[in-house]
TrEMBL record:
It comes from Crocosphaera subtropica (strain ATCC 51142 / BH68) (Cyanothece sp. (strain ATCC 51142)). The gene is rimK. Residues 112-295 form the ATP-grasp domain. One of its GO terms (molecular function) is metal ion binding. ATP binds at K149, E186, F187, D195, R219, S220, N221. Belongs to the RimK family. This is Probable alpha-L-glutamate ligase. Binds 2 magnesium or manganese ions per subunit.
Length: 309
């Protein structure tokens, strides 16, 4: 592990695009706090996997002397992105989120199963392989309306609201014809198209917002025209968000939940949550919170001895 020189740190932001808002804000926040920040396109990294001197190269040059990395891994590039993060971990570099935690959260089914194991509130969720089992699946979810989700979908893509059981069967059969894996969840009507995004850093909720879907769309994703506003969380909602992030092993996470009649239910835990929407809605410098967390924890936070494969 590289020794810190006073309060100075050398931090790599693993991102495909230096112009993205989240990447820019992290770089700016780090530089304002006196750290050396570098944006590294993880897809252009290549690795020397050896027992004696593991290394990461970028544009033909050795990447070394980093105190910490901040992974901003795209969902479609999870396999290679987490391999790069894992290589930095093997080298003893502290990561804002460890590779195993990123992989765990990216698998929606695995994520929900872990949250269920830890007793965290969830919508009733079903998963099946054979179309012959659709009737039973819909029964224990509670019947239509139901939400059908592609396991590989992101930013609201591949999420369908089926108003009737017949419509749900048609959608499920169509997805299964394409050999797509899906989840079927109860529709939380009382949420009224509004969800909560809680931004967790180092075991604390540092910012939160509520998101409302575009007119006529039950999905609240900002990428799909949703709008964000400030929100005051209840103690239970804060606790749920922190527990969900901890269950995934994520030190930096965006926890999405709905307000249901039986308390907060978690929909997703995001390992590379966007910063733009929540900074603008909450007025909180989330990027600075992340850098401050790294400055406090990276000096003694080498992941080399606890890396999991």
């Amino acid at each position: 592990m590289v020794e810190r020189r006073g309060t100075f740190m050398k931090i790599a932001i693993l991102s495909q695009d230096a112009s993205l808002y989240s990447t820019r804000r992290l770089k700016e926040a780090g530089e304002e706090l006196g750290h050396e920040m570098r944006v590294v396109n993880y897809l252009r990294c290549y690795m020397n996997i050896t027992s004696h001197k593991p290394a990461v190269y970028y544009n033909g040059k050795l990447l070394e002397s980093f105190d910490a990395v901040i992974p901003r891994i795209a969902a479609s590039k999870t396999f290679y992105g987490t391999a790069v993060v894992r290589q930095f971990e093997v080298m003893g570099v502290f990561s804002a989120n460890e590779s195993q935690a990123i992989s765990r959260s990216r698998d929606k089914l695995r994520c929900l199963q872990i949250l269920a194991r830890d007793g965290i509130g969830l919508p009733v969720t079903g998963f099946a392989h054979a179309t012959q089992d659709i009737e039973g699946l819909l029964d224990f979810v509670g019947g239509a309306p139901v939400v059908i989700k592609l396991l590989e979908g992101t930013q609201g893509i591949g999420v369908v609201l089926a108003d009737t059981n017949n419509a749900a069967k048609s959608v499920i059969e169509a997805f299964r014809q394409l050999d797509a894996n899906i989840l079927v969840q109860e529709f939380i009507k009382e949420a009224a198209g509004v969800d909560l995004r809680c931004f967790v850093v180092g075991g604390k909720v540092v910012a939160a917002m509520k998101r409302k879907g575009a007119e006529g769309d039950f999905r609240s994703n900002l990428h799909r025209g949703g709008k964000a506003d400030m929100v005051k969380l209840t103690p239970e909602e804060r606790t749920t968000a922190v527990r969900a992030a901890k269950s995934m092993g994520l030190k930096v996470a965006g926890v999405d939940m709905l307000r249901s009649n039986h308390g907060p239910v978690v929909m997703e835990v995001n390992s590379s949550p966007g910063i733009e929407g929540i900074e603008k809605a909450s007025g909180i410098d989330v990027a600075k919170k992340i850098i401050e967390f790294l400055a406090k924890n990276a000096p003694s936070g080498s992941t080399r001895d606890r890396i999991q494969f």
